[in-house]
Specification:
205 residues; mainly alpha; Arc Repressor Mutant, subunit A; Tetracycline Repressor, domain 2; 2 domains; 11 helices; 74% helix; 0% strand; disordered N terminus
């Protein structure tokens, strides 16, 4: 059918943004950014994953950078909510730290592991991100460290973590371990998960 034969109403609709599920679109874009990173992810990659034309992406999100900002916020929000839900089942700081490590160990396996962590992946791109994006990533990493410090402090208060432990240093080691698990998970499954957990928890004694 030629353009001239389209109803007038159809011509009017052509310029309007396509209706779609925003959360689903963000989740699909998230997979691309997790696997390729911000810079390597092309608009064509995103268009294919989101099942949207490039024009619809620009109309809905303005540009790739704005889309990434929304994806990053959604990723950290969903991940943190999932983790908090798991930790609520445990009473002591040590138990919660053990569950946090299980969470990261599980996230480093199979398809989830190969997709990678958006925060970890973005941290490796930090030097090539603009100032605002770099600050966003740095703040996310520091929130993770502060959360580890809070769990270690809770453990010292309830007696499940050694009071002689340097909380700041221990949080730094655990941060490196959790991020390192996600890096390794991009390549292969982390083996000996229970032994890894046992060795990590020795740090708390």
């Amino acid at each position: 059918m030629s353009t001239s034969s389209l109803p007038r109403s159809a011509n009017k609709e052509r310029g309007r943004p396509r209706e779609f599920d925003t959360e689903l679109a963000l989740d699909n874009a998230m997979l691309v950014f997790r696997q390729k990173g911000f810079h390597a992810a092309s608009v064509a990659d995103l268009s294919g994953a989101m099942n949207l034309t490039a024009g619809s992406i620009y109309k809905a999100f303005k540009d790739k950078r704005t889309l990434f900002l929304q994806v990053f916020e959604r990723y950290t929000s969903v991940r943190n909510a999932d983790l908090q839900q798991r930790l609520e089942k445990y009473a002591t700081g040590r138990e919660q730290l053990a569950e946090l490590l299980r969470f990261y160990l599980e996230s480093a396996q199979d398809l989830e592991g190969r997709r990678g962590c958006l925060v970890t992946g973005s941290a490796t791109e930090l030097q090539v991100l603009d100032a605002e994006l770099a600050d966003l990533v740095q703040r996310a990493v520091m929130r993770n460290k502060k959360f580890l410090i809070s769990l270690l402090t809770r453990g010292q208060e309830d007696g499940s973590v050694s009071v002689s432990l340097n909380v700041e240093a221990a949080a730094g080691v655990l941060l490196c371990l959790t991020f390192g698990l996600r890096v390794v998970g991009k390549i292969q499954n982390v083996t000996g998960r229970e032994e890894t957990l046992r060795l990590a928890l020795k740090l708390l004694d």
